[in-house]
Specification:
Layout (H helix, E strand, L loop, with lengths): L12 E8 L3 H12 L8 E9 L5 H8 L4 E5 L4 H14 L5 E5 L4 E2 L3 H13 L5 E8 L6 E3 L1 E4 L8 E3 L7 E3 L1 E2 L3 E5 H7 L11 H11 L3 E11 L16 H7 L9 H11 L4 H13 L1 H14 L1
Length: 302
């Protein structure tokens, strides 16, 4: 017998947007968790996957195992933000009730997508359409890894704290883009992810731009899947590495937002305090060792 869906979930159309690069096994596992979800019966779903220049035959494997997935090719320079922009651009031509951002290393729990839609519909009854965030947990420890975020305090506008999901929707200020449901009305008003960002900060920027237009974001009740936290080993935050090595790593697009992009983010979202964040970025550009020392000191204090 097929699982019963809420009437609010039936006949909804949803475009799932994914970007991948050289994580074939994880990408296939992610797609498997979506397409073998028996609760999708009655939901019109299509997956748009951007293979951003993978050299491990990810695109071919997806086409072989999941021919229903639309595979879009990138050249390796799109990264997360550019890949998701491309996926949305193509999906938007067909038009959907919802657009779901999903990281390729996410494994969704059964009924996750239906629950996201149900949460969206229930919130819309009382307010305007809202962005819905599905929280992720570590597959081994069960600890929270990604979710929505709220500002830590009023005097540090770009400092956020991750929100633990409750048994009811919780409002948030900014979002992690691992599992995010965006209603058509918000997608139309806010548009695509900002082209100025390469890899990081684009998800935060999107939700903050939506907030300025009067839309809210909510962390949906419970957990929606597993996704391991990115490790700091080998990253610019890895204190076991020499400062010289960390200084080189910090300039990579996948490390932290490049200085120019962070300056733009600060100007958009830090209000009158944005020059302070610009100055901090300037230190980051010209004195990477000093930046890393200050960052390490700040991490200890927090």
């Amino acid at each position: 017998m097929s699982p019963m869906l809420n009437s609010s979930t039936k006949n909804k159309s949803i475009a799932v947007l994914i970007t991948c690069h050289n994580r074939k096994d994880k990408t296939l596992a992610c797609l498997n968790s979506i397409l073998h979800d028996q609760y999708l019966i009655g939901i019109n779903l299509k997956i748009f996957l951007v293979d951003d220049g993978s050299t491990d035959a990810t695109g071919n494997a997806v086409c072989s195992n999941f021919p229903e997935v639309i595979v879009l090719q990138g050249d390796g320079t799109l990264y997360w933000n550019g890949g998701m922009r491309l996926a949305y651009k193509i999906a938007k031509k067909e038009g959907y009730d919802y657009y779901l951002w999903l990281n390729d290393d996410v494994k969704l729990y059964p009924n996750a997508i239906a629950k996201l839609i149900d949460t969206s519909v229930s919130i819309k009854k009382n307010t305007t359409p809202s962005i819905i965030v599905g929280s992720m947990q570590d597959p081994e420890t069960g600890n929270l890894t990604y979710s929505g975020n709220r500002k830590k305090n009023w005097y540090s506008p770009l400092s956020y704290k991750r929100i633990e999901p409750k048994n009811f929707p919780v409002p948030c200020d900014a979002i992690n883009g691992n599992c995010v449901l965006i209603p058509h009305a918000i997608a139309e008003m806010v548009g695509n992810l900002s082209k100025e960002f390469t890899h990081g900060a684009g998800d935060y920027d999107y939700s903050l731009r939506a907030k300025k237009l009067g839309f809210t974001s909510y962390v949906a009740p419970g957990y929606f899947g597993t996704c391991k936290q990115n490790t700091i080993a080998g990253s610019c935050q890895d204190k076991s590495l020499p400062l010289k090595v960390r200084g080189r790593i910090i300039t990579r697009p996948t490390a932290l937002p490049p200085a120019k992009e962070w300056m733009l983010f600060a100007r958009r979202h830090a209000g009158l305090l944005w020059p302070f964040y610009w100055a901090r970025t300037y230190v980051r550009i010209c004195f990477p060792k000093l930046w890393l020392i200050l960052r390490s000191k700040n991490s200890k204090e927090n």
